[in-house]
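Exercise 7. Predict the joint structure of the components listed below.
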Amino acid sequence: EAGVTQFPSHSVIEKGQTVTLRCDPISGHDNLYWYRRVMGKEIKFLLHFVKESKQDESGMPNNRFLAERTGGTYSTLKVQPAELEDSGVYFCASSSHRIVNSPLHFGNGTRLTVT
Amino acid sequence: GQQLNQSPQSMFIQEGEDVSMNCTSSSIFNTWLWYKQDPGEGPVLLIALYKAGELTSNGRLTAQFGITRKDSFLNISASIPSDVGIYFCAGQINTNAGKSTFGDGTTLTVKP
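Solution:
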């Protein structure tokens, strides 16, 4: 079974540019989450999809961040325009809705650097 | 929002030593989780705890869900070099919800 894959693994952009991160969850996992770790601090929840619907987007920092999951498969997270404080590691995770206490499976993350 | 205080922030130990780290919160959680992150990879679940007072082991790892539901600890016995990494605690209010509140992480270095 392929794990959660994220692309790109690293991205360096200038302030004001746009970046789109992609996440492919484990096949069959309806739950998809985006998390972010900034400056060596805690891993913070951004949002949660169930299939193509946003279940909880309470962690999204502001309207410069847009997450989509069209068709309920892969997801994208777009940052436009990027600011310096957006630098960090963005993690995607997925889990199965069919299994009670299904654990989160994390991808390797995308390290975003905004200069 | 809720915050977890995880300590220590970092640890430098000799191979073979035991390790202990903990997390405390001002809020109650119904699930406590411990993850390990290896360099360049995502966090991997080590242990999940679902009941207050629960003590669970996974090989050399032991974790406990505090009786007040506001804290948890993780012990690693007889550390080995591959234990190196960042350990995160995480709490969930709703089990099976997936939305977790994470601590800042404990960076473990093991000297051979």
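Discussion. The longest strand of chain A covers residues 43-50.
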